[in-house]
Amino acid sequence: MGVALVTGSSTGIGKATAIRLAREPGTELVLVARREGMLRELAESLPCRATYLAADLTAPDAPGRIRQHLEAEHGGELHLLVNNAGAAWRASFDEGGYANVHRHMELNFDAVVRLTEELLPLLRRSAPSAIVNVASTAGRVARARTGAYSASKFALIGWSDSLYAEEKPQGVHVGLVLPGFVRTEGFPAAELREKALTRWMVSKPERVAEAIYAAGPGGKAERYVPRPYGLAAVLRILAPSLVRRVLSGGAATSLTTSTGAEGDDPAAS
Ligand SMILES: NC(=O)c1ccc[n+]([C@@H]2O[C@H](COP(=O)([O-])OP(=O)(O)OC[C@H]3O[C@@H](n4cnc5c(N)ncnc54)[C@H](OP(=O)(O)O)[C@@H]3O)[C@@H](O)[C@H]2O)c1
Question: What would the mean pLDDT of 72-98 be, rounded to a whole number?
Answer without folding.
Answer: 97
